[in-house]
Amino acid sequence: MPSNVPERRWSLRRRLVVLVAVVALASSLLTALVLAGLWLLPGVLGGLIVRKPGAAIYVEVVAATLEALLGNTWGFSTVWYGLLEGLGAEMVLALLLYRGFGLLPAMLTGAGAGVVVGLLDSFIYFPEFSSAYKGVYVVLAVISGAVIAGIGS
Known about the structure:
With 153 residues, the chain is an all-alpha fold. It contains five helices and no strands. The chain has helices spanning 12-50, 55-70, 77-95, 103-124, 131-151. The longest helix is centred in the N-terminal third of the chain and has 39 residues, at 12-50. The radius of gyration is 20 Å and the shape is elongated.
């Protein structure tokens, strides 16, 4: 018995469009994964080397100010980001009472800074994205902070 419902097969064009969209989304998330950790590295490394309260904030703000002075797309907002990223790293170091400086504390410090940058980016730069995308973005920023900034320190 023939059906009045047309057969729903995806054309090659439609398949390619979906494939390109998936690759674009994945590449933007992977780029965020790599770049977030690189920006967090100064605060994490500074806090682990100096081992004094405020060191992570100071080093991150100095790095952000230098970046802003050299010229970038974001201007002075880079300094605010640096301050908040440094606070994220500093909070973890404070919870550890500035006594843990091995691999695990370094990864936790990077993850703490990653939470901050993930939340800032997802609400300031990506307000139109869904909650699921924002959640994935924050998780990737935390992983990036832990792996690249934490292990890299």
